[in-house]
Amino acid sequence: MGLELYLDLLSQPCRSIYIFARSNNIPFEFKHVELMKGERATMSLRESGFRVQKHLLSLTSFLEVIAILLYLARKFETPDHWYPSDLQKRARVDEYLSWQHVNIRGKGSKLFLTKVLLPLLTGQPLPPEKLESVTEELNIVLNQFEEKFLQDKPFIAGSEVSLADLVALVELMQPVGAGYDLFEERPKLAEWRRQVEEAVGKQLFQEAHEGILNAKNLTADKIAPELLEHFKHQLLKQAS
Amino acid sequence: MGLELYLDLLSQPCRSIYIFARSNNIPFEFKHVELFKDSVLGKKPAAGSGAEQPRAGPSNSEGAGKVSLLKKVPALKDGDFTLAECTAILLYLSRKYNTPDHWYPSDIQKRAQVDEYLSWHHANIRANAPKTMWIKVLIPLFTGQPLPSEKLQEVMEGLSTSLKQFEERFLQDKAFIIGSEISLADLVAIVELMQPVGVGCDIFEDRPRLMEWRRRVEDAVGKELFFQAHEMILSVKELSNIQIDPQLKEQLAPVLMKMLK
Question: Where does the GST N-terminal domain lie (chain A) (predicted)?
Fold first, then answer.
C-alpha cells in the first residue's frame, strides 16, 4: 500500500499538495473527497500506517499542509530549490510559510467565503460595504507580500521557485475563483504568477484550479447542510 | 558583530527563542525591545497574528525596526541577514548551531509531527491564549474600561477547546509531543500557555496531565532558565504601573474598544 492522498481541489492546501506531488512525479493514489458534500477526512496522508493528519475539515481551517509538503519533499528527495538546503534561503521559505497563515491565507479565504458563500447562506445579495472591507484587508496583505516577501526577486527565496511560492499562489487563486482578479492591477504579482505556473507546469496548474475557477457557479443546494451550518458559524465569527 | 536577537520577554514567541538559545548555549546579543514603550501594537491587534510591530523609532526599537522587514518582534540579525517569524528563527538557530537532534528530529516522521504541531499552533493555541492577556490586562489598561467578563468567558471557552485538542491529539499519553524527548513543538506550546497563567488564568490547575507535561518541559530546558524567561509575564500585574506613552494610548484605545465588540 503506497501513498494515498485524500484531496478536494476546492481547498487551497489540497491544491498545493496535488501540484507539488504531480510536478515532482511522486507516485500516489488520488482519493477524491468532496468537501461540499460534507465528506470529511480531506487531506490526509496515509502511508503504511503513518498518518500525518487525521482530522480535518473545511475550505478554510487546514493549516498542516506545510507538514505534509515538507514530508513529501524529504521522503521523495525533490529538487533542492523547493526547500533549499542553503540556510538563509531555507529561512526565507520558513518565514513566508509562517507569516502566511493569518495573512494571505486568512484574508484570501475570508474574501472567498464572504463573496461566494455568504450570499448562499443568507439568500441575500452581498452588501457592498462588506465586500469592500474584506477586499481592503486582502489588499493590505498583498502589499505586504509584494513589498516584504517578493520585493524585486523573481521568487520568494530568490531566483528559483520554492514551496513558499506554491503555497502563496494557490491561496491567491481562491479570491480569483470568487471573481476578484487581484492580479489585474498588480503587474509584479502577475509576472510572478506566470513564472510559478511555468515552473510547476502550466497544464498541471490549470487542471488543479479548474474546480475553484468555477466556484462562482456554486449554489446552496450543492452544499451539504452541516457544511452550510459550519460556514455560517465561521462567517459570523469572522464578522465580529 | 555576531548574532543579535531582538526580543521582549512579554511576548510568547520571544520567550521560546530566548529559552531555546540560552538552553543550547547559543551566543547572542540580547537586544531588548520594549513593546509597550517603543511600539505601536499593530494596526488591529488581531489576536491570532501576534504581530507586535515596533515602529522604527527611538533608541530601543530602532534596531528592531531596521532589522526586520516586517518590523516585528521577535527578530534575528546575523550579519547582514535578518529574519522574522518565530518558527523560522527557531529552525534557523537549530540548523546553524547544530543543536541536539531531538529539538527537530532528523527522522522524517518525527519531524513531520513537529511541523504539524507548529502549524496547528497558529490557528489554535496562538489564536486563543494571547487574548486572555488582552482582555484581562491590556484592554483595561489602555482604555480605562473595566474588564469585560463575558468576553473573557468566551475567550476561556475557546482556549479550553484548544487545550482539549492539544491533550487529545498532540500530547496523548506521551511524555512530550513527539514521544520521549522534548522538541521545538513543546517549547512553542508551553510559552504560549504561560500567557494566561501570567494574567491569573491558571489553565494548568485542573489539568493534571498538562501540569505533568509542563514540569517535564521545565526540567528539560532548565527550571532556572524557564523562570527567568517568565519573570516578566508572571508579574504582569505590574504592567498597570508601566508608563504607557500617552500617544500610544490614544491611538490604541479605539482599536481595542472595537476588539471588545
Answer: 1-80
Closest by CA to B7, choosing from B20, B18, B23, is B18
Distance CA B111, CA B122 (A): 18
Tens of pLDDT along A170-213? 999 999 998 999 999 999 999 999 999 999 999 999 999 998 89
Which residues of chain A make contact with B83, given a CB cutoff of 8 A?
A: 91, 95
Tell me the count of A-B CB pairs closer than 8 A. 84
The pLDDT of B141-145, averaged and rounded, is 75
Q: Which residue has the cell 513564472?
A: A195
Enter the C-alpha cell of residue A221. Answer: 443546494
pLDDT tens per residue across span A55-110 = 333 332 334 788 889 988 999 999 999 999 999 999 999 999 999 988 888 888 88
Of A67, A90, A102, nearest to B115 by CB-CB distance is: A67
What is the DSSP secondary-structure string of chain A? ---EEEE-TTSHHHHHHHHHHHHTT---EEEE--GGGT----S-EEETTEES------SS---THHHHHHHHHHHTT--GGGS-SSHHHHHHHHHHHHHTTTTHHHHHHHHHIIIIIHHHHHSSPPPHHHHHHHHHHHHHHHHHIIIIIITTSSBTTBSS--HHHHHHHHHHHHHHHTT--TTTT-HHHHHHHHHHHHHH-HHHHHHHHTTGGGGGG--GGGS-HHHHHHHHHHHHHHH-
Could you tell me if the ipTM is greater than 0.90? no
Q: What is the pLDDT of residue B130?
A: 76
Q: Which long-range contacts (CB under 8 A, 24 or more apart) does B142-147 make?
A: B142/B244, B142/B249, B142/B252, B142/B253, B142/B256, B143/B253, B143/B256, B143/B257, B144/B253, B145/B257, B145/B260
Backbone Cα Rg of chain B: 18
B173: three-class secondary structure by DSSP: coil
CB atoms within 10 A of CB B208: 9
CB contact under 8 A, B116 and A52: yes
Within B24-85, where are the H helices?
35-38, 59-67
Amino acid making up residue A63:
L
Q: How far is Cα B34 from Cα A70, in angstroms, rounded to an integer? A: 35
Q: Which residue of B has its CA nearest to A104?
A: B49
Query: What confidence tens digit (pLDDT) does each residue in A6-26 have?
Result: 788 888 888 999 999 999 999
Res B166 pLDDT > 50: yes
Take residue B255 and report the three cell numbers written for it: 482599536
